[in-house]
TrEMBL record:
GO terms for cellular component: axonemal microtubule; centrosome. Residues 1-86 form the DM10 domain. It comes from Spumella elongata. This is DM10 domain-containing protein. It comes from the Eukaryota. The keyword Cytoplasm applies. InterPro entries: DM10_dom, NDK-like_dom, NDK-like_dom_sf, NDPk7B.
Amino acid sequence: MSVLGFELEWFDEVSGILQTLYLKFFLDDNTIEILKGTSTFLKRIFYPEVKLSDLFVGNSITVFNRLFLIKKFANKATTEYMNAREVRYLCRIGRDNLSQLGKLLIVAKNVGLVLGKVVTTSSSFYSSILAADQGDVVIELVGKLCTNRDALLKAIQVPSLSSVDAVMASAQEIEDALRSCGKASFRSQNCTLCLVKPHIMKSQTTGELLNAVTASGDFQIKAVFSIHMTLSMGEELFEVYRGLYHNYSAMLEHMCSTPVLAVLVTGTGSNADYEDIVSSFREFVGPGDPALAKVLRPESLRARFGESVVKNSVHCTDLPEDGEMECRYFFETLSSL
């Protein structure tokens, strides 16, 4: 087989119309073409940000600043090809053990899995494949070209992942289960937002970064939520930086290029009610320029994981008075969409 077909959904923010398009992925040279009906929407090109590993049902991709949701395989041949090579897991981590999330993502990467959707449950639920309590985190993991389809089930049988449940499931079963989770709800005070940027998600170093946050001993993860932001969502969040950030346009484009992971962070133990968690976490994240961070704060997140001013690993809340507002924007406003 030389060409795969995928049905896409695209919301045109200008016209306000939800459109159905079709993407062709050419296996011989990894090029793509997008059709609108029988007409060409995007002529065949090589677009390096779209890889075969990105093309699974439920995932979203960005091509020239347009966000496309992959709804389904477009034909029987593609369905058979992808199903023969794809494995999916749905995992659950208890709300009191979210420090294990980073470890799970590292293990998943090591067995060839990529991160799909992530939600924090708003209430207890039971589906045909998984049960979870309020505040638990449910994670979709997807693998391509997997020769050992139960590799994750074996890999999580270690004490450090004792609170992780995992089950293999179909795309439809996972979609139904995630819908049963409800939307993440905002329940914290004295919190700050950590937004894991697209380049970290694409390079699959999200697990190492989250491990660094919890291993510090000063911070704990209370909720997580994955979303592919549109340009309008990004503009609403980052509008205050427009006149302050000389790379604003590049930063905004990067933040909307692939899904990001929103992480609600609080203090630990006796510091759980620490009122200046925003400033404390911002100091832990480090200066905005990773090159400067490597000199001034070599143990900071941006020194360890940042690549450039735009790709500096994470966005974190800047001002103490904005911590609750930014968390509420993701874990209340965006999660309800």
